[in-house]
Amino acid sequence: MYSLRFDSDICRTCPSGACLVKCQYMDVDKETAKEEMVKISQGKDSFVLEQCVTCYACEEYCKRGNHPFYLITEKREEKGILTSPRAITKQWINIGHPQGKYIIGGIKPRILSFGFMPEFLKMVKGRLFEDIMPSFIFGQEFFCNVVYLHFANTSIIKERLPMVMENFKRLGVEEVVCMHDECYGSFAHLAPAYGIEVPFKPIHYFEYLYKRLKELRTEIRPLKIKVAYQRPCSSRLSSDKHHFVRDIMELIGVDLIEREYQDENALCCGGIFAMCYGYDLAHDVQTRNINDMVAHGAEYCVFNCPACQSTLGEKVAKRDIKPIHMIDLCKMAIGEQA
For 258-282, b where at least 16 C-beta lie within 10 A, e where not — what string? Predict the structure, then answer.
């Protein structure tokens, strides 16, 4: 069985305790943060195991590469600390179970991976994707399984992710453009943390979009709109690619507003909060987030994750902010989207 690469001495000698000090859902000082992470690594009880809301952010806050969130998730599972009712957890585990109903397009050395998000099947049309389509895969057999971190279940990830890697290996692909950054985070961040071999080069779709837009630069018409960006939980596993948000906005003439809840301080969409932790937490986070967008004059809310858009799209629209996915925003810039 694969095991997490974690060193408690890194926590013990940490100069900042940033993983928990920066947490937006717990109030923890530096010394307490270090003590609690060491306790967790030793299998001891900690309030952190009870209070973590699975926002993933501590994986980004830790600049020493010690995977605090993965550790918290592992120890929760070991202790049987549930983040949601058993029926909900079981339902989600069943959703990701391979069914033999995957879809494969014309496979080339470079492919698009939709994971198990059917929304992308409709999005990847037009000039932005004409150099790679119809080379794609979709289905549970290629599903990254990262979502189970929300349910304190790393064992299902360690069971299924190596099989996913074998499925990719059989395709013989060299590069996989991940259309969902949860997939990219799984292949570029989580898999190495557990010593799981990745037989291809994962590419974040933001990086792909940026390069394609540069190739289509003569067709870009600056949009001259003010937008807020809704950063998803999973992008905490791909923080090295977050700069492409600003890079893309600058390239297509979009004003990315400066606001309180962005970049490292971003708030989750609240979808998982509503399901696992109840209405009050989700409502509070969503209200503060949307109020922040309104207060800073956002005309559009740009989404990375379709699940975030499904959760917040209607809510931002009710505040006169237009919801739009990053792909559709880029299509607007080259005249393919109204």
Answer: ebebbeeebbbbbbbbbbbbeeebb
200, 231: one domain: no
* Separation between Cα atoms, residue 57 and residue 76, nearest integer Å: 17
Do both 110 and 74 map to the same domain? no
Tens of pLDDT, residue by residue over 116-133, are 888 888 899 999 999 999
pLDDT, mean of residues 152-173: 96
pTM equals 0.95
Contact 178, 184 (CB under 8 A): yes
Is 288 in the same domain as 306?
A: yes
Helices and strands counted in the chain (H then E): 17, 9
Residue whose token pair is 């925003």: 329
Q: Which domain holds residue 42?
A: 8-79
DSSP E strand boundaries for the chain: 103-104, 110-113, 136-138, 175-178, 201-204, 226-230, 255-256, 300-303, 322-325
| End-to-end CA, the chain | 50
**Number of domains observed in the structure of the chain:** 3
CA gap 333, 248 in Å, rounded: 10
